[in-house]
């Protein structure tokens, strides 16, 4: 108790003098427990406590600027910080907590790789097995692609064959994959989501179970991961974080989308889209330190430096993981995932056993994970401050302005950020966001302003054409598409095919 509080001391003494010692004890207990200020720190903090407080204060500083997510930090097998920040659901004012569910994107790949290695442990599969050994009617150019090459992104398959939510079935996905043109030489590293969906199909073929059921029975439950999956966990009892485009536009949750679609598209199965908590991801890493889920041999394969991704800095691909030199030259085992709105990353430093698990459900100006790494390994480091998303700055200005007032946006933007609009994609992306909301007049005004700032960029005229078409102004759309082709480069035009297709459609009408 802090006896500098004289009012409390006088009350206690009065209780004792009046023959009410029990009341004095009650007041004393309440003073000790109820008046505790969470901002008051112990006089003798351990180094880990002090570090956790510094990191927590840093993460809290981003909440008012639009950050929302969760962070877990562990050292020497002990969690020192596990906390949610900001809101999981702005409309319902539901906060993010340590138990909030987040989409982990491409971190799904490490679970798929572990499931493959579990089949190896069960003597049902070898990493040297070929597609032609597993599936019927595999084309000659893909027949000899191995499981190892799929695991290491060296199969030559393209990145993917459609959108995450386009309802592609397994048979449709396999047909597209086998009919596709390989984009690289066998053995050359080219990151491929499609390769990991093929691995999911292999898991189903070899095990006789669907992907999520095999994963749940053989990997997740043995590791103690009860809140991880696509559709099998009891999501109704849990808080699932909505995704917010730059903290302002809700995109809902991926779990809701799976339920609406009646399942997970095979453009996503095995390569992305699993949902989980920070705590489950920590249990997962802990399980991979022992024999509970996989044999020592299989665990070593996950973290082995199978294929070099880049020579400088030296980065290697394992099975579902990346291995590189992290802060201060220490070995770092890591992977991340995201879709431009949410973000997930797992980082493990075996030397010193440091784990950093990060999730975000809103796109912000900069990811804080590098700052957290430096705070852990560099005592006294002052992290770079969070900043408001540039997209949010533009979006909120436009909301408070008329379409005529949008002309003042460049001056406002520079006054707020200290720099002019230098990125042609900035106003384009905000314009597309308004277009998706059905606010066509605002979107067109932003596209036109962007063309004033970058007049020779044909892709911006193509975006203006899309805006006019969405607003059903076909004459202006046709003129804009044509202008985009007039400004197109002689080769490698990313928008020309769409512009030509739209021109042909409009000219037929």
Provide a descriptive summary of the structure in words:
The chain is built from 20 helices and 14 strands. Residues 1-43 have low confidence and may be disordered. With 509 residues, it is an alpha+beta fold. The relative contact order is 0.10. The strands form four sheets. An eight-stranded antiparallel sheet has the order 2-1-14-13-12-11-10-9, sandwiched between helices. It has a two-stranded antiparallel sheet with strand order 3-4. The chain has a two-stranded antiparallel sheet with strand order 5-8. It has three domains: 1-40; 103-315, Beta-lactamase (3-Layer(aba) Sandwich), CATH 3.40.710; 390-508, Alpha Horseshoe (Serine Threonine Protein Phosphatase 5, Tetratricopeptide repeat), CATH 1.25.40.
Record keyword descriptors for this entry.
Serine Threonine Protein Phosphatase 5, Tetratricopeptide repeat; globular; 20 helices; alpha+beta; 3 domains; two-stranded antiparallel ribbon; 43% helix; Beta-lactamase
């Amino acid at each position: 108790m802090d006896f500098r509080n004289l009012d409390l001391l006088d009350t206690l003494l009065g209780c004792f003098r009046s023959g009410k010692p029990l009341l004095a004890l009650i007041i004393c207990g309440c003073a000790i427990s109820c008046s505790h200020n969470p901002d008051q720190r112990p006089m003798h903090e351990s180094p880990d406590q002090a570090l956790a407080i510094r990191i927590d204060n840093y993460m809290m500083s981003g909440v008012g600027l639009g950050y929302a997510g969760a962070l877990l930090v562990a050292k020497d097998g002990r969690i020192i910080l596990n906390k949610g920040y900001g809101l999981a659901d702005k409309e319902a004012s539901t906060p993010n907590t340590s138990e909030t569910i987040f989409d982990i994107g491409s971190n799904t790949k490490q679970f798929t790789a572990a499931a493959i290695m579990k089949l190896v442990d069960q003597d049902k599969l070898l990493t040297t097995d070929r597609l032609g050994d597993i599936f019927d009617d595999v084309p000659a150019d893909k027949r000899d692609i191995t499981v190892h090459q799929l695991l290491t992104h060296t199969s030559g398959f393209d990145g993917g064959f459609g959108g995450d939510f386009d309802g592609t079935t397994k048979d449709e996905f396999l047909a597209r994959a086998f009919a596709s043109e390989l984009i690289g030489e066998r053995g050359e590293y080219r990151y491929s989501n499609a390769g990991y969906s093929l691995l999911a199909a292999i898991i189903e073929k070899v095990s006789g179970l669907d992907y999520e059921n095999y994963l749940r029975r053989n990997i997740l439950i043995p590791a103690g991961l009860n809140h991880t999956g696509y559709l099998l966990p009891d999501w109704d009892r849990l808080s699932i974080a909505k995704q917010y485009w730059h903290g302002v536009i809700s995109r809902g949750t991926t779990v809701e989308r799976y339920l609406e679609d009646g399942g997970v598209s095979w453009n996503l199965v095995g390569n992305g889209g699993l949902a989980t908590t920070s705590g489950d991801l920590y249990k997962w890493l802990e399980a991979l330190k022992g024999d509970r889920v996989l044999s020592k041999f299989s665990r070593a394969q996950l973290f082995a430096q199978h294929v070099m991704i880049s020579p400088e800095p030296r980065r290697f691909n394992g099975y579902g993981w990346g291995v590189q030199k992290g802060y201060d030259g220490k070995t770092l085992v890591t992977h991340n995932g995201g879709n431009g709105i949410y973000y997930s990353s797992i980082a493990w430093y075996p030397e010193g056993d440091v784990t950093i698990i990060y999730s975000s459900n809103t796109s912000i100006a900069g990811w804080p994970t590098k700052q957290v790494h430096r705070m852990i390994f560099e005592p006294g480091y002052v992290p770079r401050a969070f900043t408001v998303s540039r997209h949010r700055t533009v979006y909120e200005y436009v909301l408070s302005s008329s379409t005529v007032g949008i002309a003042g946006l460049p001056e406002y933007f520079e006054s707020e950020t200290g720099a002019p609009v230098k990125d042609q994609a900035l106003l384009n992306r905000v314009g597309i966001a308004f277009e998706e909301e059905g606010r066509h007049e605002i979107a067109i005004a932003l596209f036109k302003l962007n063309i004033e700032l970058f007049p020779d960029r044909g892709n911006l005229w193509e975006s203006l054409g899309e805006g006019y078409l969405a607003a059903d102004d076909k004459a202006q759309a046709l003129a804009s598409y044509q202008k985009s082709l007039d400004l197109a480069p002689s080769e490698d035009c990313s928008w020309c095919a769409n512009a030509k297709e739209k021109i042909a459609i409009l000219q037929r009408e």
